[in-house]
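Sequence and fold:
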Amino acid sequence: VQFVESGGGLVQAGGSLRLSCAVSGRTFSSGDMRWFRQAPGKEREWVASMDSMGTRRYISSVKGRFTISRNYAKNEMYLEMISLMPEDTAVYYCNQDDDWGQGTQVTVSS
C-alpha cells in the first residue's frame, strides 16, 4: 500500500496550492481521510478530514481557506489551499487508517 503526496512547493503569502494524495495497493476504506502537517520544531497536527458521508472538518486556523476532497474513481484525495500564510509552512501528510504518505513540503514566504 502506498500513499503518495504531491503538489507542494514554494509560494508567496496569499498564494494557492493544491495537494494530491494518490493511493495504490488498496482502495479507500470507510475510514476518515485526513491531512496532517508538521512544521519545523513542532508536533504533527491534524489539519482536515473527510468521512465516508462527505462531512468535512478543519482545524480552526484553516477554515475558509482549505478544502479537502476526494475522487474515488481515481483513488485520490486532495487539499486545496488558498490565501496561504507563512504559518502554513510545513510538511503535509495524507492519511487513512494506519497508512501514511511520505509528505510534501509546503513553504509560504512572507
Remarks:
- The chain has a mean pLDDT of 97.
